[in-house]
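Message: Study each token:
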Amino acid sequence: MSCSSRVGAASQAVTSSLLASFRLLHVTAVDATSAHGTGVPTSASFSDVVKSYVALTKPRIIELLLLTTVPVMFLAQQGVPPLRLVVATFVGGALSAGSANALNCVVDADIDQLMRRTSRRPLARHEIPTRNALVFGLVLGVVSTLVLGLFVNWLSAELALAANVFYVVGYTMILKRRTTQNIVWGGAAGCFPAMIGWTAVTNELAWAPFVLFLVVFFWTPPHFWALAMRYREDYAAANVPMLPSVVSSAEVARQIVAYSWVMVATSLALWPLTPTGWFYPAIAITLGIVFLIEAYDLQSRARDTEELSVIKPMRLFHFSNAYLALLFVAAAIDPFLR
């Protein structure tokens, strides 16, 4: 059997397994509702249940994580990597991220009910029994490890599993409710996709993916603190010491500027460490300048007020998403322009 045939067969097997799991969990959910009066309503259709489980995986976060995985594969390949490898890495990475996000929802179900931003998540709305969500998250983790290990390589599988464990245990269970530095160190889990993309192609680590790891590491605080400023009352109500709910907006903005400078400097370090042409550094410098302008504008607006309508933190948050996506796409395009 050819490699493409094996991947196709494995994909069908994984899909069938997940659909079977959905059906089983649906039946369990309905039974739990009948017995205890909680969980998924008995009138919920199979499609409604599937939508709830998909929501547990936080698809928008998965999209962002994959944007730091696939482009790095092109950089590592210095061209177009094999389609089979891209598909396997994409599927395995998505399942791994979905597993971590689902387990995060299980652990945070109590505080998700208290926050506007998260109050519509399936567990917060009691659409899915907690036990089912836990099983679902663990199954996704096992399947993702097998997909990456069998069809990519075991180094990539180990990195994905390490990221999953660190996010669920290190960030969600240990750091999040205990320290204002929660997202600084816990955000490291979101940096692993850059390394996974590289190892998927090379089966070894190098300085280039480590630099990209650090770019995401220093990008995470400005990105997430801007969002947390918008929802600081939520974090205060849930007793989560996210920095914007503990210190003034002026102090948050000051730290955002500091991390932004380090992030931009780190992004330029990729240039001498990896054979890039003129395109990547040009884009990195341009994006970095715009990011710093946005960070300083935020600091200026936050200097003498706590009024969110004046501070407008979501401006930086939205641009930070574009910044990361465009920076990694530039790294992927650069090999084709030399």
About this structure: The chain has two domains: 1-204, 206-338. Residues 1-11, 20-24, 26-42 have pLDDT under 50 and may be disordered.
